[in-house]
Amino acid sequence: MLPPVAPHAWAHAPERRYVRVMAERRACPSDLSDARWALIEPVPTAWRAERRRRALAIGRPPEHELREILNAILCVDRTGAQWRYLPHDFPPWETVYGYFAKWQKDGVFAQLNGLLRELVRQQGRS
């Protein structure tokens, strides 16, 4: 006779099912500095707020920080790695790619490009 199989740890704590406890990750060379994040943070934050406002009151809240999502996208862009080879200390590659595809479709990258272009022009005039 086979020994009894222990239930999965999440079976005892369903409220923690989507909580992901991750240790601090090591910085990547492509990570955004605090100053750069401060410049562009309003754009993805406004996008997320708009999507949450339009959504029904169902679904779970966002699990990952937008800065980590953007850092992961920049890592893939800088290294040329495939999405599936995104280092494991970033959010899951499916999540990162999902944000990338939605941001591309919704024009978030175009907004960021316009914002950064305007900042460069203002610095040139000073």
Write the layout of secondary structure elements.
Blueprint: H1 34-40, H2 42-54, H3 66-79, H4 93-106, H5 108-125
Helix pairs in contact: 3-4
What distinguishing features does this structure have?
single chain; 126 residues; mainly alpha; 52% helix; Insertion element IS402-like domain-containing protein
Give a structural overview:
- It comes from Streptomyces macrosporus.
- This is Insertion element IS402-like domain-containing protein.
- Pfam families: DUF4096.
- This protein is mainly α.
- It has one domain (31-125).
- The protein is built from 5 helices and no strands.
- 10% of the residues are buried.
- Mean pLDDT is 82; it is low at 5-23.
Main sheet attributes: strand count, strand direction, barrel closure: none
Radius of gyration: 19 Å
Q: What's the number of structural domains?
A: 1
Helix-strand sequence = HHHHH
Estimate percent helicity: 40-55%
- Kindly estimate the percentage of residues that lie in beta strands according to DSSP: under 5%
What structural category do the secondary elements indicate?
mainly alpha
The average pLDDT is 82
Number of DSSP E strands: 0
Tally of helical runs? 5
N-end to C-end Cα span? 80 Å
